[in-house]
Amino acid sequence: MPIPSIFRSLLAPLALTLLVLPASAQDAPSDARVEQALAQNNVNYSAEENGDYRVLFTLPNERSQLVWISPRTDTIGSLDIRRVFSYAASFDNGESLPNDWAGRLLRSNSGYIVGSWAQTGTRLVFSANVPADASDRVLLDTMALVMTTADDVEAELTGADDW
After folding, report:
1. Residue ranges making up the domain that contains 33
2. What b-and-e string marks burial along 97-118, b requiring 16 or more CB atoms within 10 Å of the CB?
3. If phi over 0 gives left and psi between -120 and 50 gives alpha, with beta otherwise, what is residue 51?
4. What is the CATH number for 61?
5. DSSP-derived pairing of the beta strands 79-90 and 123-131
6. Alpha carbon 49 to chain centroid distance?
7. Taking Cα atoms as reference points, which of 97, 148, 93 lies closest to residue 119?
8. Does 1 have pLDDT greater than 50?
9. Taking the complete model, does pTM exceed 0.90, yes or no?
10. Is the pLDDT of residue 92 over 90?
């Protein structure tokens, strides 16, 4: 069936737009709200190639912990949320989270008011979702919660300070 002329005139600009989209999608996302919250609170950060904001915290007992804040948000109904996360362990060479730890962390998820444990690929991650327009205080409190929770498990599970 031939394409009506009205649709042919719309298809050319649409095809050109689709050709342009992949190039702009390669740019790393950013979010001025996150940058402003971190800057106003004197939190040093760097941006990863994928756009995630990376913050290194120095903790007591000569420990440190990395926390990432996603500039990307997900919209569900009227909610616009972002992810704040930190790793507690990494598993290489076919290793995986020991079953007793998997059960323990899964059970602990029901006790958290905010956040939960998951295994993503070869990493054990604690993450929490916050409103994208959360106040500075809410974002910083969420970062602190994610940081301490992940570091506590990293110290107990691995004894290392890799993250």
Report:
1. 29-157
2. beeebeeebeeeeeeeeebbbe
3. left
4. 3.30.1460.10
5. antiparallel
6. 13
7. 97
8. no
9. no
10. no
